Amino acid sequence: MSIIDKEFLWKKLSKHFNDGDFHQVISLIKANSNVLNSINKLRVVNLGAEASLRVNDLTQAKDFLEQSIEIKKDQFEVYYNFGVIYELEENYDKAEILYRKSIEYNPNSSDARFNLTIILEKTKQYSAALYEIESLIQIEKSYEVYMLYGSILTELKKYSEAMNALNKALILRKTPDVLNNIARIYRKIDDHQKFFKTLSEAYDLDPNNPLTNNNLGVYFEITGNYEKAISHYMKSLSKEESPQTKLNIGVIQLKQQNFEEGWINFENRWKDTSRLQKVINSSKPLWNGCHCESILVWGEQGIGDEILYASMLNELLNYAKKIYYACSSRKITSIMKRNFNNINILHMDDIKNDSFFDFHIPIGNLGRYLRKSINSFHKVRYKLKSDPTIRNLIKSKFNYPLIGISWKSNDESKNLNLEIFKNLSKGKYKLINLQYNPNPEEKKLFDELGIIDSGYDLFNDIEALLALIDCCDFVITTSNINAHLSGAANKKTFLLNKLGLKNFHYWCSPNNKSLWYPSVEIVKLECNLNLPDKFGFIQDL
Known about the structure:
It contains 24 helices and ten strands. By secondary structure, the chain is α/β, with parallel strands linked by helices. The chain folds into four domains: 189 residues, Tetratricopeptide repeat domain (Serine Threonine Protein Phosphatase 5, Tetratricopeptide repeat); 84 residues, Serine Threonine Protein Phosphatase 5, Tetratricopeptide repeat, CATH 1.25.40; 87 residues; 151 residues, Rossmann fold (3-Layer(aba) Sandwich). The strands form two sheets. The protein has a six-stranded parallel sheet. Strands 3-2-1-4 form a four-stranded parallel sheet. It is globular, with a radius of gyration of 29 Å.
């Protein structure tokens, strides 16, 4: 092919590319690539890679890019495009390597650094993401960069700095997205008035924005206006399909005891894979309430939820001859074996095939068939027994009336200040710690507040934790595993429920008594530093 012919080919390829005829670009390059020399081929295969990306043919794009790298290695654009491909394939480790390679060849490549920062945020490498975004902001001070900066700072709980970054984005472009991100910070710092005010401002900009309507749904849900909450959730769904929004509706319906619709919408949690710790892969069908030979039930979401929903396990014996339960954590297998003698208890990692059961079901889905009315809760007799040897050892060690306390959860919005318990140790009761992993500052307060440290590893030794709870006269706790263990042990429990929380459906009840755990009383807290007057009886005992 002559130089003139090669230039004609390039003009033809360029015209097709500019006209958006990307498939024709790819076909022409593949038909003529063998006759191009390395200098001409480099720009041609790079154009082919770009055309392939435009039509989402990632395999062909990779082929062109590999040819390009063979010709010339130090091309930051090629590594960037490779990174884009692996990001689209959700291979974030590979994408991170390639974006870093692109930056190595061109430190001022704002696109590569921006995409790298997004990858680091997605993979929860927030400190590394902060480093990259702070480097990027020296190069580019755009709306998108300030938005990303604000998001990362929010994840790092640097709320003041995050607000500053988002306000800079707001100056550049006033959009519902930036207002929603600002509102998110107000919610995290428990400023519900400004949370609502900012969302209202976003709503005025665009009343049909799905994110704004979803967040307004959250606001009205946490303030107890369920009808308005559902209205906004439905409006969000009308503009954008979202499993999370359907799940939000399901949770409200369960709170309202609308079990028939609530359990169905609650199953949308399975469409958000970030919620799942482990999943059973099986060709066997999901159990649908039928009578059968055998059912495998498997744990999901967390130990607390497993303990809660395990209250339905024995009822399955009315539907099948053999019931298997697979725990998601080995920490509770011994507890389950001791308390469910008629059910085969195993761990999810022990399941090598699905030949031993006919149907399977995640434990939270059982409610759809076994908790269809309030009456179905009243018939339940559920109590977890602790290990008698451990319980007797604890009783001999701490031979006085005990109040078990805990104040933190994995969800920091539920956390309380330890000093809330400062006036509880003045009567005959001794306070004993049930909180796993208290920080050094909290441990220093134990002596001052009269709190006993049992010496057990309460994070890993759930048997000891259950026995310790069993030795308490009653338990005061925020929403965490202790609330579930104490409720399942039928121990008198006060669940401290901060106002403004988006509560789980099982901690909502019209009479402040848990439907799932009759011994749990739900106590609404208006202040993080003071217990309600109802706890004054402790000082008088």
